[in-house]
Amino acid sequence: MRKIYIFIYFILILLIILSVVYIIKFFSLRKDAIEESNLLNIYDNEVIKEVSEEPNQQIITEETKQTANQESERMIKVRKLKEENSDIIGWLEIPNTSINYPVLQGTDNEYYMNHNYKKEKSKNGSIFLTKEYDWTIPSTNLLIYGHNLNNGTMFQELLKYSNETFYKDHSTIRFTTADEDVEYEIISVFKSRVYYKSEKNVFRYYYFVNAQTEEEYNQFVENAKKASLYNIDATAKYGDQLITLSTCSYHVEDGRFAVVGRKMAIEK
Predict the structure, then answer these.
(1) Distance between CA atoms of 35 and 263, rounded to whole angstroms?
(2) What are the per-10-residue average pLDDT scores of the chain (268 residues)?
(3) Which has fewest Cβ within 10 Å: 136, 199, 229, 241?
(4) Global confidence as pTM
(5) Domains of the chain, CATH where assigned
């Protein structure tokens, strides 16, 4: 009996140690993700300085500050982030959620699955744009991936779009590059999975980046609308820039969850 008690005691100690290690890692990864989401804030003073040095803007009025905040601040900050890592191609935000991160693009779709924006190894990975997206065209669809992490960071909150009320309260996606700061109106929210090559007549949304024809574009939009978990009046027409946010989902094996939006017209 004494040996049994010693064994049980050993197992309990081991479980406690493993639990503590897990908790430390859990909060450490969460802390890293939160720090990353606050990256833009570190450039606040530099942005005001840069705006103030533009010709004919010697005095920074409250109106000037407001203009900078609304029109150019995020674009300037993205340009500064690119100086740290040229793979940073933009900043993604869904207002009033935890999704607020830099977007990376590598030469493959593997590297930023387990590296952060500093190119350090990280289980959080990064939010990243598929390597197939060609900025010189530019391509039709910004296909952006991120992990679904149980610490509530990266694209975990994307799954809340399963609830129609959440969609109604968060119906736009903001994406900022060094050249523009725009919003995308969500047109579809759906569950999917990675299909086998042998499966026919299935919606492989994760292959759609650049539409070769109007028919191909319209087919993608039609399939996305059909797959949507609930009806959304907004849609897209040929020529509209699209954005697709994709993450893992565990409703089926190799499940995926996707949110599709179309670029809204920029007000003059």
Answers:
(1) 28
(2) 72 72 57 67 57 46 44 85 95 95 96 94 94 96 95 92 98 96 97 95 97 97 98 97 97 97 77
(3) 136
(4) 0.80
(5) 87-263 (2.40.260.10)
